[in-house]
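Board notes (copied after class):
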Amino acid sequence: MDLDAVESGSLTTRGPDNEIHTVDESPPNGGYGWVCTFCVFVIIMHTWGVNSAWGVILAHFLSHSTFQSATRIEFAFIGGLSISQALLIGPLVTKMQKALGTRVTLLVGTALVFGALYGAAYATEIWHLSLSQGICFGMGMGFLYIPAMSVLPHWFTTHRSLSMGIAGSGAGIGGITYNLVTGHVIETLGVRTAYKVLAFCTLGANLVSCLLLRTRDEPRQSRQKRAFDLHDFRCPEVLLVVFWGVTTEFGYIALIYSLPNYASSIGLSTKQGSITAATLNLGLTIGRPLVGYVSDKFGRITTPAIMTAFCGMVCLMIWIPAQSYPVLLLFALLSGTVCGTFWGTVTPVLAEVVGLWRMSSSFSLICLTLVAPTTVAEPIALSLVRGSGYLHTQAYVGCMFFLGSFALWILRCWKIFDTESKEINERDGLGINTPPSLVSFLRWVNLQKLFRKGRV
C-alpha cells in the first residue's frame, strides 16, 4: 500500500480479485473527526470502563453473601459472559449496522446497557444477575463498541493511529473512574444504588455520544463479502495469533476481575480493593499508547511478545509475594501497563502476518474463538483459589501470559521465515505469493534463528 498516496488523497490498491481500485476522496484527517474521536472515547469509557467495575461489585458479593444460594463459580461466570456476549454478536451487529445505520445500532446498545445495569439493581436471584449484568450488558457493549470503532478509520489518514489510541484509552480512564465511584457508592449507599448510578451515567454519556457521532461513506472496494473466513484456520500464522489471544485472555480476564477480591483476601478494605483495580486501569491508560508507540519503533510482533512475557514475570515475581497494600498497588500499576497488550496490538500484528485485505475477516474469526475463554476465565481462576489463598490462581495467570508470549515469538520466527522464503522465491522466479509450508519452516527454525535480531 502506498502511504504517500493515502496522504495525498489518491489511493491505488490491488484487491483480492486482482483488480485495481482507486479512492479519489481522502478523509479530512481532523476537523469533525476529533469530535468523533471524543465520542468513541466516551463510548469505550462507558462500556469497557464500566464493565471493569464488576471486579469491585464481585468482591462485595463474595464478602457479603448477597445471594445466599449462589456459589463463587456462578458469580465468576457473570463477568466473563459480559465480554463473551460482546464478541459473540459481532456478525449480528455488523449486519444491523449495514441495514439500519450506525446511529440506530448505537442507540440499541445504549438502551441495552442502561436496561441491564438498572435491572441488575433489582436482582434477587443469581440468574437475574446473569441475564442483566452478564448477557444483556454484554450485548449492549457489542452494539456500542463494534460500530463506534468502525467509524474512526474513515475520518483520518496520518492521524489514524493517534485517534485510535486516544479513543482506546477510554477503557483505562473509565476503569479508573468507575472502580473508584462504584467502591465509594457501595460503601456509603449500597450495591443497588451503585448499579443505578452506573445505569444513568452510561445512559447520559452514551446517548450524547451516539447523537454527535457521524459516519463517512466507506469506499466500495473496502467492503468484504464475508464477515470471516474459516479457511484462515489452515494458516499457521493465524492459529498462532488465536493461541496468543486465547491464553492471554485467560490471564487478562482472571487478573482484572480477581484483583479486588484478592485485596479483600489479604485483609484490605473494599475501598482499597477498588483503588487497586483503579490503579490497574491507570496502567492500561498509560500502557496501551506506550506499547503501540514502542511497537512502531522496534517491531509490531517483537514488542507485544516481550510485553506479554513481562506481564507473566510480574505476576509470578510481584503478585505472589504481595501481602501489603503498597506492593499490591505496585503490581497493579506494572501489570496494568502490559496485561492489555493483546487488544492494543492485535490488529497491527494481523496486518503484518496476513495483510490489510485479510485483516478484518481474520480479526472477526479471532473474536469468535475468544468467546469461550472470556466466559470461563474467571470461573477457572476462582476455582483454583484454595484455603491457602490465591497461589494457584496467581501461578495460572502468570503461566497463561508466558504461553501467549511463546506463541508470539514463534510467530515472529514464522514472519522472518516467510520474508526470507519470498525473497528466495522471487530470486528463483517462483513468485513471491508461493506460501511457505509448515514442514519447511520446521526444517529452517533452530535455536539461533529463534533469537535472530531484526525489526519484526
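Comment from the instructor: The chain has 20 helices and two strands. Residues 330 and 386 are 24 Å apart (CA to CA).
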